[in-house]
Amino acid sequence: MPDLKQIKAPIEKHISEFEDKFKHSMKSNVALLDKITQYIIKRKGKQIRPMFVFLAAGMCGRINESTHRAASLIELLHTATLVHDDVVDDSNIRRGFFSINALWKNKIAVLIGDYLLAQGLLLALNNDEFKVLKIVSDATREMSEGELLQIEKARKLDIEESVYFEIIRKKTASLIASCCAAGAASVKAPDEVIKKMHLFGECVGIAFQIRDDLFDYQNSYNIGKPNGIDIKEQKMTLPLIYMLNNVGFYEKRRIVNVVKNHNNDPDRVATLIEQVNRSGGIEYATEKMKEYQQHSIDLLHQFPESEFRNSLEQLVVFTTERNK
């Protein structure tokens, strides 16, 4: 498994500068707002999204101030959606920390999300970053559509494989695609290169989400047993869809009944996970994940070799073959 520090090496200086610029982009004269944004900054994750932006920019041209703004815009808009998601889901924990709504209640959390969204839009508009703003706005719209499509389909649990891929393309892959396309746009790459980088990011995002779905049916990295969270949340993921497509009508009805009405019964969920494992669903999903991973690497290899391209390839492997 590639090491994140090693992957980050060609852009380490830019990532360090980005952290300061991102803090500045969230600054406010309102004390409460400043306190909450400082809390958000402290709990930032591995910075995978900015890494995609900077590495894509470095591979397609010369990293500049526009690249920094693109990375900040994506982080601001994405953070805004996460804050709003936690309110919608009534979630108290985000990445092991208390969520904004858990500490400051829903009204303040919604207003914080709105503020971050406005800051992102102004950062782009004040600097005439129209192309980057369009790329990121398209992704934000697609993420919302993906979430709504998933909610709509969860009511009947009638998701076909094509619908599943449409949901994860919109909900997850569109964000990584926007990182790669915005990175290319920030260095004034031609439109065909921006499109190619968008497709590259989309393939990585789809492979990433399939990998995420597989965790639910495989032994957990931390606790040694599958957790079945997706089943409990009535999410139809690829291993389960594959199994449903390969059983008879009555068996399919029984499985859907477990997901719909008995998803909090640990024994039934464990039995269903075992059944998915025996059905070949895990192998099928793993194969699909590898297809998207390989397609993304094939797209990368259409660019000249460089330290940025090498790091991007390692980042693809890191995001799609992680253990947790």
Write up this protein.
The structure is a single chain. The protein has 324 residues and is mainly alpha-helical. It has a single domain, classed as Orthogonal Bundle (Farnesyl Diphosphate Synthase). It has a two-stranded antiparallel sheet with strand order 1-2. Helix 4 packs antiparallel against helix 15. About 2% of the residues have low confidence.
How are the strands ordered across the major sheet?
A: 1-2
Number of strands: 2
Structural class: mainly alpha
Biggest beta sheet attributes: 2 strands, antiparallel
CATH 2nd-level architecture: Orthogonal Bundle
Mean of residue pLDDT values: 87
Radius of gyration (Å): 20 Å
Summarize the structure.
This protein has a single domain, classed as Farnesyl Diphosphate Synthase (Orthogonal Bundle), CATH 1.10.600. The chain is 76% helix and 1% strand.
Any descriptors?
single chain, 324 residues, mainly alpha, Farnesyl Diphosphate Synthase, two-stranded antiparallel ribbon, 2 strands, 76% helix
Question: How are the SSEs placed, and which strands pair?
Answer:
Elements: H1 4-8, H2 12-25, H3 31-42, H4 48-60, H5 65-89, E1 93-94, E2 97-98, H6 100-125, H7 130-156, H8 161-186, H9 191-215, H10 229-232, H11 238-244, H12 249-261, H13 266-279, H14 281-300, H15 307-320
